[in-house]
Amino acid sequence: MIGNDIVDLHFIDWPPYQHVGHLERVCTSEEVRTVGEAEKPSVTLAALWASKEAVYKLFSREVPCPFIPRLFAVRFGKPVRLAASETAIVSYGGNPTRVELTITDEWVHATAISPAVQVVRSKTHEIDASSLKGRGPVPLQESEAVRSLAAELASRYCEEGVFQDFQGRIPVLKYKNGDDAAIEVSFSHHGRFAAVAMGWPIGNRRGVPSGGGFIDKTSCWEETCSTCTA
Q1: How far apart are the C-alpha atoms of 116 and 152, rounded to whole Å?
Q2: Exposure letters 194-207 (e unless 16+ CB within 10 A, then b)
Q3: Residues 9/105, Cβ–Cβ less than 8 Å
Q4: pTM for this one?
């Protein structure tokens, strides 16, 4: 299983979150302390939120469950830093899940990874509304952008003939004959950015990408953002 979430840092304004009552509605007491002691509280809060959302998306694939943020307890191995790749552990229902974080001065991206996944590929991209075909409301344009990004990632790493589909609201990848491609996929978008993560489970030998280690992150933002360490 896999889940991902992206947070546009332009939409995380620290002053409204100084009221501890708000933090306590979405954070554990330990997380409230972590935010309060952080050098950049808004970035730490964004990393917490992205981690919670990513793990929620992972678990909700198997068992539909309500998103109650405080039940997803996040622990960072070290203080969250800009221009860094970090790892967090998120516990939900007694089950720990590893989360890989990429943090820039523009966005925070979190990928939650099940132990059953052996290879992960993910990509972030700034949404260019002017290039989209859609003429509908902003949410429809964002959905179009993330589907386009998923198609780009699939064309690079998946076998020919894999296409996007949905089971309810959950995105899936299938072959044209209707068979499940056995490749996990997760969509996310927020503000100016979209992100997609794909995971190849252990035992899936068909079309597994080679090279690059366990997780490989790419970002079109790298072309203009020298602080990105994806």
Answers
A1: 25
A2: bbbbbbbbeebeeb
A3: yes
A4: 0.82
DSSP secondary-structure letter at 19?
Answer: S
Neighbours of 40 (CB within 10 A): 18
Question: Residue 134 gets which letter from DSSP?
Answer: -
Distance CA 45, CA 227 (A): 20
Helix (H) or strand (E) holding 187: strand 184-190
| pLDDT tens column, 188-225 | 999 899 999 999 887 665 556 654 434 445 443 332 22
* Cα distance between residue 153 and residue 196, in whole Å: 8
In this structure, what token pair is assigned to residue 67? 């998103």
Which residues are within 8 A (CB) of 86 and not within 5 positions of it... i.e. 6 or more apart?
A: 47, 76, 77, 78, 80, 100, 101, 103
Query: CA-CA distances (angstroms) from residue 213 to 57, 121, 181, 216?
Result: 24, 10, 21, 7
CA distance 79 to 173: 36
List the beta bridge partners of residue 201: 117
Name all domains of the chain by residue range, CATH numbers in brackets: 2-223 (3.90.470.20)
What are 68-104's pLDDT values in tens digits? Answer: 999 999 999 887 877 678 899 999 999 999 999 999 9
